[in-house]
Amino acid sequence: MNNIYKIVFFLMLIFSLSSCSEDLVDEVQTATLKGIVIKKGTNQPLKNVKVHTTPTTETVFTKDDGSFTIENVPLGEYSVRAELTGYLTNFQGVSFKNQGQLVSVVFEMSDDDSLNSPPSVPILLSPVDNAVDQPLAVDLTWDASDPDSLDVLKYKLVVKNDFNAEVIQIDDLTEKHYFLENLKFGVTYYWQITVSDGINPAVNSPVFRFKTSTTPNNRIHYVKKQNGNYYIVSSNEENINFQFTNSDTNSWRPRLNQNSRLIAYLRTVGGNTQIFTSKPDGSSAFQVTTVPVAGFNNAELDYSWSKNGNELLYANFTKLYRINKDGSGLQLVYSTTDGSFISECDWSYDGSKIAIKTNDALGYNVKIYVIDMVGNIIKIVLQGVPGAAGGLNFSVDGSKLLYTWDITGHQDENYRQLNTHIFLYDLLTDVVSDLSVLSEKPDGGNDLDPRFSPNDAEVIFVNTSNDGISAKEIWKITLQDYERTNMIPEAEMPDWE
Fold first, then answer.
1. 375 and 245 in a common domain
2. Three-class DSSP category at 22
3. In this structure, are 35 and 154 located in the same domain?
4. Residue 141 shares a structural domain with residue 283
5. What is the C-alpha separation between 146 and 124, in angstroms, rounded?
């Protein structure tokens, strides 16, 4: 029996020693996992991201700065998982090999596009569908929304018309409107908006249409200056207007002919001055001349229509030509005998006589006279006076002629005028009326470029300071009472037909 007790005691002792040795050998070794979760592409920290491992250890959530820590991770191989609603789940493999090891990871999470909703169909707001009588500049407006408020919507505008094959396409608009300019009169325009959130397929709006107003019967045309170029404006008497020529070309001295329904004007082409014509809406520009308009100072040159609108009269230095409006039939009408330049001309409505202004190469030694159609001088209006002169225009019946002259007689190399007046010459009585005096023109300025109104009851003209740099304005004088009225600011070279 004693032997049996001894054997049992010995076995229990061995078991106890074996258990203590196993506890020392199997003590768990751990490491630490730290990391940060950011949005891919923006590096924006993401909070409340669920992070856990496989095999399972501890589940944690990221802080406001996107960071997380999992401590006491037993050594081994793990798959770490990051999850957040609206983002694709991200996995990374990590390995812990040493006691107390610190492993750092960075998760870049991408949007889960499968959960992203497309934007709404754009709603076109204005102009309303089938709108008519629209101006030549229209603010196209629309609306669209996106269920995912963080998405940036971009719009594409496509505009077509029933006039030509031109297509206007504006991409990557972020505003819900676009100011469409330089439209044409009487044309139907079709427009459509496409919206994209950069994730889903683009969404198209319906196609809307609108029609611009018909070409107005404007009788006044004038010139403005921009970036060194003249451009022409078409206007009514209330100065409701539109830009007739582009400002990227140099176009000036407009002349409307009611019979041909064409507007002629001067334009620089390859360093020369040529006569062009266009329709009243500014379309169908046509170069009439090949022998250029030339003389002293391009800004002082002037030409004239025939009443029926079939021909134009213009000068090239010492020679006066007539030419058909289609560019054919160039014919010499008159040449100066003293070598002086012809700078201006006007053709009477009945086609029987021509008023001419000649001058030397500096613009002086002026002579204004009237010739018949075979070149005979029938009336001398002004000669033998110093100073600048010009501004020829016949009355409808051809009995009166407007012209201007600087009464100071000032002359210099810059062709500066100090006190230019408008004169009305009666060809029947040789009586001269100073309209600037009668209308009480203020001192220190010039009255220039006079033209009769269509009924000869008024005279339209330009007034400006004699300093040579101040703005020019278009005024009119009523011939019944000589009242002066300001019509159009910052404008010059008027025509009223």
1. yes
2. helix
3. no
4. no
5. 16
Report the C-alpha gap between 7 and 20 in whole angstroms. Answer: 21
Q: Is residue 186 part of a domain?
A: yes
Q: Counting every residue, how long is the chain?
A: 497
Tell me if residue 300 falls in helix, strand or coil.
helix
122 in the same domain as 109: no
* Number of domain units in the chain: 3
> Where is the domain boundary, 114, 146, 161?
114
CATH (domain of 179): 2.60.40.10
| Residue 439 main-chain phi, psi, to 5 deg | -95, 10
User: How much is the pTM?
Assistant: 0.72
Q: Which domain holds residue 53?
A: 30-114
Q: Do 133 and 172 reside in the same domain of the chain?
A: yes
Long-range contacts of 58-65 (CB under 8 A, 24+ apart): 62/36, 62/37, 65/36
The closest alpha carbon to 333, from 314, 349, 361, 305, belongs to 314
Residues 168 and 299 in one domain: no
Whether 489 is covered by a domain: the verdict is yes
Angle in degrees, CA 216, 497, 313, rounded to 5: 120
- Provide the H-helix boundaries in 211-300: none
| Separation between Cα atoms, residue 371 and residue 354, nearest integer Å | 5
Angle at 117 between CA 207 and CA 80, to 5 degrees: 155
- Residue in 96, 43, 38 with CA at minimum distance from that of residue 68: 38
> Rounded to whole angstroms, how far apart are CA atoms 124 and 255?
42
- CATH number for position 237: 2.120.10.30
Q: Given 99, 114, 129, which residue is the final one in a domain?
A: 114
- Per-position pLDDT tens, the chain of length 497: 455 555 545 555 555 544 444 444 457 899 999 999 999 888 999 999 999 999 999 999 999 999 999 999 999 999 999 999 878 899 999 999 999 999 999 999 987 766 678 899 999 999 999 999 999 999 999 999 988 777 789 999 999 999 899 999 999 999 999 999 989 999 999 999 999 998 889 999 999 999 999 999 999 999 999 998 999 999 999 999 999 999 999 999 999 999 999 999 999 999 999 999 999 999 999 999 999 999 999 999 999 999 999 999 999 999 999 999 999 999 999 999 999 999 999 999 999 999 999 999 999 999 999 999 999 999 999 999 999 999 999 999 999 999 999 999 999 999 999 999 999 999 999 999 999 999 999 999 999 999 999 999 999 999 999 999 999 999 999 999 999 999 999 999 999 99
N-term to C-term CA, the chain? 147
